[in-house]
């Protein structure tokens, strides 16, 4: 076993599942003929694991997602590979894919992809400190979001029915949720999916059509613990956020995050997010 994939003591269910994910990476690395060259990192609720590898393509990134069978399908399951059609935004490219079942319990999907230079702007989705990025980085962010917005796709992240249900379930039936402008969005544009010092965007599972302003709204809501950055994000995307569709995009993102908070994620974000929502519901 590669030393980077050594098992940890199985002291609790999470430790057991991390070891399972390390085993999955080892199996995928053997399939692709690559060598793990760094310590793996785990994604949200351990459903993904990723690690640097080296092989015939040179330095790459190996990512494995593990899902229950009913979720191992659809746009989110193939989002990274589908994203290969996007060539005008700085992002990873999937080189190869390998899928296998773990009996009838889980399905795994391994993706070997190009390695992005630099590091994520944050180790967490929510920003806690200044991101230490350049003015050119901010310009590249705006240009990339604008470029993506007009790329045609049949993929859908959030349609009118989903937007209305999510917002009204959280904020009440009287909220006007009519979206008049739609755009292609990354749909998970938070700080651990953004690279520095050179700009780049990771994790394209969810990209697709969404209310215009969704990416700006997502980044804004994940920035609220650092008010100066939240203000900078707002100013950069004011023409997308300060519109009827932009308001709905923000409410949709906020509802999604509040659902996550109810499940135990991002507890410190709850109060600033509620304050932000109140400004949108006036």
Care to describe what's here?
The longest helix is centred in the first third of the chain and has 20 residues, at 13-32. This protein has 2 domains: 3-114, Phosphorylase Kinase, domain 1; 119-280, Aminoglycoside 3'-phosphotransferase, Chain: A, domain 2 (Alpha-Beta Complex). By secondary structure, it is α+β, with helices and mostly antiparallel strands. Strand 5 and strand 6 form a beta hairpin. The chain starts with 12 loop residues before the first helix and ends with a helix. Strands 1, 2, 3, 4, 5 and 6 form a 6-stranded antiparallel sheet that branches. It has 9 helices and 11 strands. The protein is globular, with a radius of gyration of 19 Å. The model has no long low-confidence stretch (mean pLDDT 97).
Give the class-level CATH name of the largest domain: Alpha Beta
- Indicate the proportion of strand residues: 15-25%
In DSSP terms (H or I, runs of 4 or more residues), the helix count works out at 9
Helix content: 25-40%
Mean pLDDT across the residues is 97
Coarse morphology: globular
What is the number of independent domains? 2
Would you identify the CATH architecture of the largest domain?
A: Alpha-Beta Complex
Number of strands: 11
**Which radius of gyration do the C-alpha atoms yield?**
19 Å
H/E element string? HEEEEHEEEHHEEEEHHHHH
Termini separation comes to 58 Å
Uncertain segments: none
* Structural class by SSE content: alpha+beta
Under CATH, the topology of the largest domain can be stated as Aminoglycoside 3'-phosphotransferase, Chain: A, domain 2
Can you summarize the main beta sheet?
6 strands, antiparallel
């Amino acid at each position: 076993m590669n030393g980077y994939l050594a098992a940890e003591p199985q002291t609790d269910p999470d430790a057991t599942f991390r070891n399972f994910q390390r085993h999955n990476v080892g199996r995928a690395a053997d399939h692709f003929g690559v060598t793990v060259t760094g310590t793996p990192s785990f994604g949200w609720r351990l459903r993904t694991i990723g690690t640097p590898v080296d092989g015939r393509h040179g330095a790459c990134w190996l990512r494995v997602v593990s899902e229950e069978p009913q979720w191992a399908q659809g746009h989110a399951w193939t989002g990274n590979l589908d994203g290969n059609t996007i060539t005008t935004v700085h992002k990873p490219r999937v080189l190869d894919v390998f899928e296998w079942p773990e009996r009838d319990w889980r399905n795994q999907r391994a993706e070997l992809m190009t390695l992005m230079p630099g590091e994520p702007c944050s180790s967490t989705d929510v920003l806690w400190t200044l991101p230490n990025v350049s003015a050119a980085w901010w310009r590249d962010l705006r240009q990339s979001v604008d470029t993506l917005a007009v790329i045609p796709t049949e993929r859908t992240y959030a349609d009118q029915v989903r937007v209305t249900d999510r917002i009204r379930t959280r904020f009440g039936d009287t909220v006007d949720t009519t979206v008049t402008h739609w755009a292609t969005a990354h749909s998970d544009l938070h700080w651990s999916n953004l690279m520095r010092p050179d700009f780049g965007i990771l994790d394209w599972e969810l990209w697709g059509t969404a209310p215009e302003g969704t990416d700006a709204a997502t980044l804004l809501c994940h920035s609220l613990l650092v008010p100066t950055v939240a203000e900078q994000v707002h100013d950069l995307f004011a023409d997308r956020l300060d519109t009827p569709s932009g308001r709905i995009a923000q409410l949709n993102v906020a509802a999604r995050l509040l659902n996550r908070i109810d499940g135990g994620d991002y507890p410190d974000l709850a109060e600033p997010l509620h304050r932000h929502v109140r400004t949108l519901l006036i």
